[in-house]
Design brief:
heterodimer; A: 479 residues; Ubiquitin-like (UB roll); Rossmann fold; 3 domains; 4-stranded antiparallel beta sheet; 16 helices; 18% strand; B: 319 residues; mainly alpha; 2 domains; 13 helices; 55% helix; 1% strand; disordered C terminus
Amino acid sequence: MASILYEVVRLTCPQVGICVSLLIFVGRKAMGISLLHLPLRFPTFTGGVHPDDNKRHTAHLKIEELSAPKKMIFPTLQNAGAPGEVVVEVGDSVKVGQLLIKQCGIISANHHCSVSGTVIAIEPHLHPCGSHVKSVIVENDEKYEVFRNIKPLGHPENLTKEEIIKAVSNAGIVGMGGAAFPTHIKLSPPSGKKINHIIINGAECEPFLTSDYRVMLEDTDELLIGCGALLKAVDASECIIVAESNKKDAIAKIKQNPIYQKNEKIKTAIVKTKYPQGGEKQLLSAVLKKEVPPGGLPADIGAVVVNIDTCAAVARSITTGMPLITRVVTVSGGAVANKRNFKVRIGTPVADAINAVGGFTAEPAKILLGGPMMGVAIHSTDIPVTKGVGAILALTEKDVGIKVTTNCTQCGKCVDVCPMNLMPTIIDRYCENFDAEMLEKLNIADCIECGSCTFICPARRDPLQRIRTAKKKINAFKK
Amino acid sequence: MEKMLRVGAAPHIFTKDSTAVIMQDVVIALLPALAAGVYFFGYRAALLAIISIASAVAFEHLWNVAFKKPTTVYDFSAVVSGLLLALNLPPTVPVWIPVVGSFFMIIIVKMCFGGMGQNFLNPALGARAFLVVSWPSIMTSYVNSGAKLIPFLLPDAVTSATPLSGEAATRYIDLFIGNIGGCIGETSKIALLIGLAYLLIRKVITWRIPVAFVGTVAALSWVFAGDGYFNGDWLFHILSGGLFLGAFFMATDYSTTPVTKNGAFVFGIGCGVLTVIIRLIGGYPEGVSYSILLMNVASPLIEKATAPKRFGKAGFKSA
C-alpha cells in the first residue's frame, strides 16, 4: 500500500510541479496577473503589520457633543509649517468662529475661536509637541454667540474654483488625519501638475481610532458635499472614498446616499485592513496602483489625498460658513472605562475630555494624542486638542507592553513589513555607527516613520527612533 | 505640580513576540524530532541533548561573567543552539563530544563575533563541521534504529551506514518515520514536518527557504540522480540524510541568512544546488551541512544583491 502511494507521488509530482510553476511564472510575466494574489483579496500595498485594531470598544458609539470647559487654549501652531500670527489682544471679547490666529507664511493656517468669551492671556502654553508654544487663552462665557461675519456661502456647485479654495483657506482647514498639513495648499498644486484623482482617506488604519468611521456613518451628507466641492476646486475627474475592509458598512451607507448616486464622479473603494494603509503613499499604491516617486508628492502622480473629517469640514465651511472649530475625537484605551466618540471644540484641554468619560479607571502608563502607532505621548493633561488630534488614548502598562531589548537577531521581519521597501535592520546598524553616506545610499529619507519596524521587532529594538535621529543629523549636516 | 506622565517616541504598542518567545518556539518545534530520536535510539539520545544544552548555556554564561556583561542566557538562543547540536550528533558519540562541540559553538562561532545575531556561521553547523574534521570516525559511525542505547555506557560498535552512502537497502516508510540509522534528530521526517508546521503557524520562519531548498534538491535529483536524465529517485533524496533538519531548522537561522525576501529564495536554491552537487559528485555522502555553511558565508552578498526595489521606482505595479 505504502509503496503504491510512494510510486504515485514519485511519478506525478515532477510533472505537476512543472505545470504549476509554469502557470505562476507565465501568469505573472506574460498576462500581468499573479496567481498568488487571488482577485477576491482587497487591494493593498506591500509590507505592513497587523496590530490588534481595538476599534470594537468605540465603533458602535454615536458621536456625542463634549461641552467646552471654562478655559480654552488655542495654540498658534496647529498645522504643519509655520505658526500663525495672533490678531486679538488680551481683554478682547471674542465670538464663536472669530479669527484669533492668522496664517503667516506660505505653509500656515488660520485658527479660530471655538467658544465665545474673553481673551485672558496670550502666553506660551504646553503644546502636544512637548514644549511651550505661544497660545491664545480664552475664558468661555458659555453663551456660544456666533461671530457676525459667519454666513453661508451657498452650495459649492454655485461657487468658482478660486472661491472654494479661498473658503477652505479662510476656514483654517488642515489635514485632520494627523499631519495637519494646510488643505488649501494641497488644493493648489504647482503649475503644470494636473490633479485627476481625489482620494478621500477613510482607511483609519491606526488601532483604537473610530472618529473617521463615525463621520462616514453620521455625516454622510456633509462628506459627499465636501467631495463635490473638492472635485470642483481641483477640477479632478474622480473622487474615490476609500475605507479599510473592517469599515464596509460605512461604504455601504455612502452608496445609499442620493448625493452619491447622483454624482458619477464620486466612487468608493475598499482596501485591505492593514497598518499603515492610511499613509498617503500606501493608499495611492493600493487604490491607483501607482507609486509616488521618492521625495515626491501625490501631485506627482496626479492625485491628492484628503482625510474624511477634513472633507466634511470643507463642506461645513461652505454650507454654513463656520470655520474649522470642532473635530471628532475618539477617547479610548485600557485606562478609561467609558470610551466615547466626542465632537470636541478645538482648544479643549485633554483633562476635560478625560473627566467627561469619568476619569481613569486604571493607572495610565501613557496618554497619547493620536493613535498608538504614530501618536504623541504627552506628559501633562493640560494640553489642548488641536486640529490634527484624532484620538485621546490612555494606555495601560498592559497595552504598552514590556520592553526588554536584546541583540538584533537579523530575523528580517522589519524588512518584510517596511511599506517603503527599506531595510530597517541594516539602516539601524549604520545609524548606530553613524555613516551619513551609507544611510543616503539606503534611502533613509524615504522613511515615512510609520513605526512598523519598531512594532514588529522581536528583539524590541527601536529602528525608527534611530532613523529619526539620523535623519535630523543628516539634515543639520546639509544646512 | 501634578505627576508627570511617561512619554516616549511612537510607536507605543509592540508585537507580543520577543526574542525569547521565538527561541522557545524553536525549542518546542524541535521537541518532536528529539522525541523521535529518543524513541529510536534510546535514552542515550536524551542524555546527549541534556549535556549539549547545559554546556551551551554554561559556556555562554561564563563568557558573559568573564567579560562583565549582563548575562544573555535568558534569550534562550543558547538552548536552541545546544539542542540543534545534539540533534546533529550520531547517538553513539562519547559524552565529551557535545561538551567540546558546545565550547566551539558558543565561544568560537558565536560569542567571539559578538553574540546572538552577529555570528556569520550557523553555530550548531559550525560546531558539527569542527567535530567531523577533528574526530571523523566518531562522528560518522551510525547505529541502526532500535538500538536502545543506554546512558553512560559506550555502545558496542553496531554501526551501520547512512542510506545515502548507498549500502543499505531501505524501505521508504522507514525513511519517513525515522526507522533508520543517522544523527539523533535527522531521521524522523514526520517529526521534523510537525516542527516545521509549528514554526510556520507561529510565523517564526517563512516558507521561502525550506521550500526553495527542498524543492531544488528534489528537482535536481529528479533530473540528475537516476540512470540517464529525468528519472532520478527524488523522493528518496529529500527523505534521506539531514535535508529536512537542515532546511527547516538550520537554513532558516535568522542571523546567517539574508533578510530580504528574494534573498531567501536565492539562499535556499543555492543550498539545494550545493547539496546535490556534494551528494552526487562529491566524495562525501551528505552535503546539507556544508552547503548551508557555504551559503551562510555568501549571505551578506546575497542580501546586497537582492535589496528590495525602492518605493516609487517601480512605476506601475502589476495588479
